[in-house]
Amino acid sequence: MAGGDIENRGGGAKRYSNSINDSSGGSYISSSTYMIDDTEPQWTSWLVPVFVVANVAFFVVVMYVNNCPRHKLVGKCVARFLGRFSLEPLRENPLFGPSSSTLKKLGALEWTKVVINHQGWRLITCIWLHAGVFHLLANMLSLIFIGIRLEQQFGFLRIGILYLVSGFGGSVLSSLFIRNNISVGAPGALFGLLGAMLSELITNWTIYTNKGGWNTGTSRSGLV
User: Fold this and answer.
1) Which of 20, 51, 60, 111 is deepest in the core (most CB within 10 A)?
2) SS3 sequence of the chain
3) Contacts of 70 (CB under 8 A, 6+ apart)
4) Residues 6 or more apart in contact with residue 49 via CB below 8 angstroms
5) Which parts of the sequence belong to the Peptidase S54 rhomboid domain (predicted)?
6) Sign, CA torsion 200/202/206/208
7) Which structural domains are found in the chain, ordered by start?
8) What whole-number distance in Å separates Cα of residue 48 and Cα of residue 159?
């Protein structure tokens, strides 16, 4: 089997065609060709790191306002050496964070306050609050692993809008189905980014498999 490749070096598009030898010693060129476009621009990721820093900063502010030693005996606070940044006792908050009253005060999502008291701003503020250190770490690691790649591929504007809209939608759903407890964090925003990543992967699955086949030296014919 012999093959010929035509590459457009002025751009990133490559055209591949295959010629196949027949049993009589002759050869013919198959009509199967396909194009691979590797000119997709790469954006610099800066918005996702800003989101991460903002979430960490909000958590520090929440812990400052919480001030565990002020409303509890010093001996009951976790990590007492942190002073007013000390964590609530584990029996009250096993995630190593502030009290529920502090979260409510600073904008946690609560059904009665949103629906009855018309505090719609809580649908946005709850996205930037976290229940504890473990909660914050889990969300930020997920945001970094998923968000940076998407921002490099699609740009900060699309990813920023997707993050905020998905977070708002998740808050609305939480306010409809969670009525007896408060809700904080950005699971809706993270699931929105994850859905975008899976959608892009499924849509371009053929492109990824074709690139992987040629990168490993595998010759394929009959591709369109």
Assistant:
1) 51
2) CEEEEEECCCCCEEEEEEEEECCCCCEEEEEEEEEEECCCCCCCCCHHHHHHHHHHHHHHHHHHHHCHHHHCCHHHCECHHHHHHCECCCCCCCCCCCCHHHHHHHCCECHHHHHHCCCCCHHHHHHHCCCCHHHHHHHHHHHHHHHHHHHHHHCHHHHHHHHHHHHHHHHHHHHHHCCCCCECCCHHHHHHHHHHHHHHHHHCHHHHHHHHHHHCCCCCCCCC
3) 84
4) 148
5) 118-211
6) positive
7) 2-39 (no CATH), 47-203 (1.20.1540)
8) 9
Our CA angle for 161, 193, 190, nearest 5°, is 100
Note whether 162 and 193 are within 8 A (CB): yes
Which is nearest to 35 in space by CA: 19, 18, 15, 5?
Answer: 15
Over residues 81-94, the mean pLDDT reads 91
pLDDT tens digits for 208-217?
A: 677 655 444 4
Query: Residue type for 67, please?
Result: N
- Separation CA 48–CA 29 (nearest Å): 49
- pLDDT over 80 at 78, yes or no: yes
pTM, whole model, 2 decimals?
Answer: 0.73
